[in-house]
Amino acid sequence: MQIAEHKLARAAKPASCCSDFYEQDWVRQIAGDNFHPGGEALTRRTVEAMELPAGSHVLDLGCGTGTTAMLLARDWSYRVSGVDPSVSNLTRAQSRLERARSVSAARQPQALALQYVPGRASALPFRDASVDGVLSECSFSLFADKPRALAEIRRVLRPGGRLGLTDMAINGSLPQDIQDVIAPWTCLEDALDRSHLLQLFLRAGFVINSEGDESRGLRSMIATLKRNLLVLGAGAIAGGIALPPIDVEALRYWLDRLAGEVNSGVITYLRFNLYCP
């Protein structure tokens, strides 16, 4: 599979990190709006475990195009700040928010208390102790300085604040081919194991309320990506549309390789609900 490996690495490996990869239009076609395993169902479980009352100020850290941020503002009536370093993501998120507010104005329900703010986890643009909760979905593994990011999260959280975090984790070592080709665009390149994550949380001063293995959502996401690839390919052929700039068969191969490592327990997806004393 050397040819497939070469084509995928050349076409898919991002310039900086996997967030650049997910900003490509063809990736959005097969991945949809939820770029994290477990989708909305896992978001709801994580947020419910945070046990924050309506009106709480919640940061969606690494908000992407705003799917979760809008859910937080709409279904929990939180005051939400979506934070992301990507101008492209925030532009899309703001456009979606404006469309939603237009619909809301026509129906006259309660307005969404939601804003999008450019920023990075290493230097959050918020005052000390000004936030009730922080949600981080499949973004912590991307932070270059994880201790600094946790220190910033703790700085902006009020005493009693909550952190809900879901992310990729690795047990042992990734096979070299997956490390070289798959890791850079699946948020695995800097992923840690569970014990290392727990140490980081405790050293940052957090108390662990609950945790769970959410790898089922990762397996489901991989299966969905494979199905959507088939649909994308069939639609392109039927409609005379150009396929995305990647070897689709190679991508299917690597999704199968990734699924194998998930099934073996080497790659997992974990949820942590933490408390800030």
Can you offer a commentary on this structure?
- By secondary structure, the protein is an alpha/beta fold.
- The protein has 11 helices and 7 strands.
- Strands 3-2-1-4-5-7-6 form a 7-stranded mixed sheet, sandwiched between helices.
- Helix 1 (2-12) packs across helix 11 (248-263) and helix 10 packs antiparallel against helix 11 (248-263).
Give the count of helical stretches.
11
Could you name the ranges where pLDDT drops below 50 across 5 or more consecutive residues?
1-17, 234-241
Strand order of the largest sheet: 3-2-1-4-5-7-6
Q: Count of DSSP E strands?
A: 7
Order of helices and strands: HHHHEHEHEEHEHHEHHE
* Helical content (DSSP H or I, runs of 4+): 40-55%
How far is the first residue's CA from the last residue's CA? 51 Å
Rg result: 19 Å
The portion of residues forming beta strands comes to 15-25%
Summarize the main sheet. Answer: 7 strands, mixed
Mean pLDDT comes to 84
Structural class: alpha/beta
Oligomer: single chain
- Gross morphology: globular
